[in-house]
TrEMBL record, chains A, B:
Entry GO CC: cytoplasm
This protein's record includes keyword Magnesium: yes
Gene3D superfamilies on file: Farnesyl Diphosphate Synthase
Organism: Candidatus Methylophosphatis roskildensis
Name of the protein in question: Polyprenyl synthetase family protein
Swiss-Prot/TrEMBL keywords: Isoprene biosynthesis, Magnesium, Metal-binding, Transferase
Taxonomy of the source species: Bacteria, Pseudomonadati, Pseudomonadota, Betaproteobacteria, Nitrosomonadales
Length: 297, 297
């Protein structure tokens, strides 16, 4: 396990992910050049890379070769990037700023943004199919199926459909949780499990990681809701206060900020408790759950 | 090889594909129900299933088990269906009729249509990852990568980007061909190769199928262009004459109908010539190339 401290580890992994993503993405000089430039614009040079960080941290738990984990990490990040591009489109959230830059359809055009998202999704599966990620092919097929299910109508895209239908609605906290388990949680859980799948883990530890992944997915969303309510656009790198403007149910709108913060702390405690049986190999995952909360505290 | 005549074979395969697609798609009663209903609306009950037919016909050449081919065939059709849903969106072709029914965004809404397409793409890869399609895992990883590449920015989605950029432009016949090799050709070629990959083929026969797939992809597009120029909306099941209205370069606009028909006949002859070394096992593929042309002659 790496001995560097957390901030340095994070910077190191982020740089590695950036490099791998850049290598996976077709060059902006390859035809169709405008589409490829837009794909690179949408993926590179921004983002905290939380999902790749989780994949690498889970890979450490399973003693996975980082050269394998980087492909899984990038596949998840490509799915995440495509979802942001499509989510920002006028027919969805209609957002103009993302990661401190104009959103893809603002910088290019809507048709290009649509095709960027579509192409990034295909690329994610190409990356996951082309690399050798495990010694057992059956495990790699499971990884491909896991990412596909986490991305689709019973995962992330389904969560977005629930989110879209929820605008202006009064949701219970259970309904909100159901939405976020899909919209944000599915891909975060997939990031953790895919990273772990590149190595070997006894079933009990895999289950522990799965519990950690589920708590972390919700934790991440609660913190996002608090940030949207409290931070400004410059700090956030995306339009702040959008949830309230769009009349979207959030943890803050349902629980209030104080209770939402308490819930974040509770979820962090649950996430850490899930890691207990694993011990020190889970250090990076524990640090990441602190990092996710510390984005705002 | 099946002894039934071509029309009966086609009806039999189409029914089988419909059944498999229906089984792959989440039920309209499963949450998020509206998204799942829209996915089923977009995929089921229409379409000639040309790509699945090609996959089954190529599977026969390679003595593949049809129970394996049906998964590959459905994965390709799911990609095709997603591309139609996204292609019909207002920011792309802005079409209101498809397969004789309102397009998905007309029947539902734009956000749902966007998520339908996204979810169908994920589902295609889930189907291809979850079924056992070959005896050798390496071959199945290649199939997954092949479908991902054929769908993405250097395949179908890239072709749509070129198409979108070409509106109102004067293209040479070579540029038009380049566009269609990506937009339509990549997925048709993938259908043929994926069907064949479910069985076993000597490399020379696989190359012959690849040549057949490339010719057939272009053939299909030329016939499509002729139909768009000559048929009416009722016959076509989609808005006729759109290419001219949208000022899109087509084989008809560049070559005229007579020369486009001649070119279709030439391509069909090339497609059949590619099958020569294979002999009678390629009967269904040959019949399919006739069928593709006969749509209009």
């Amino acid at each position: 396990m790496s001995q560097v401290d957390f901030p340095n580890w994070m910077v190191e992994i982020q740089a590695r992910v950036e490099k791998t993503l850049s290598r996976c993405l077709p060059g902006a000089d390859i035809a169709p050049a405008r589409l490829h430039a837009a794909m690179r614009y949408s993926v590179l040079g921004g983002g905290k890379r939380v999902r790749p960080l989780l994949a690498f941290a889970a890979g450490e738990v399973a003693s996975a070769d980082p050269a394998r984990v980087e492909h899984a990490a990038c596949a998840v990040e490509l799915i995440h990037a495509y979802s942001l591009v499509h989510d920002d489109l006028p027919c969805m959230d209609d957002d103009s700023v993302r990661r401190g830059k104009p959103t893809t359809h603002m910088e290019y055009d809507e048709a290009t943004a649509l095709l960027v998202g579509d192409s990034l999704q295909s690329l994610a599966f190409a990356v996951l199919a082309e690399a050798r990620l495990t010694d057992e092919p059956a495990a790699q097929f499971e990884m491909l199926a896991l990412l596909a299910r986490a991305s689709g109508s019973r995962g992330m895209a389904g969560g977005q459909a629930i989110d879209f239908a929820a605008v202006g609605q009064q949701l219970t906290i259970e309904e909100l949780e159901h939405m976020h388990i899909h919209k944000t949680g599915a891909l975060i859980r997939a990031a953790v499990l895919l990273g772990a799948s590149c190595g070997r883990l006894p079933p009990a530890e895999r289950e522990a990681l799965d519990r950690f992944g589920k708590c972390t997915g919700l934790l991440f969303q609660i913190v996002d809701d608090i940030l949207d309510a409290e931070a400004d656009t410059a700090t956030l790198g995306k339009t702040a206060g959008k949830d309230a403007t769009q009349n979207k149910p959030t943890y803050v709108s349902i629980l209030g900020v104080t209770r939402a913060r308490e819930m974040a702390n509770e979820l962090r405690a649950q996430a850490l408790a899930a890691l207990d049986p694993i011990g020190s190999r889970a250090r990076r995952l524990a640090e990441l759950s602190h990092y996710i909360v510390a984005r705002q505290f």
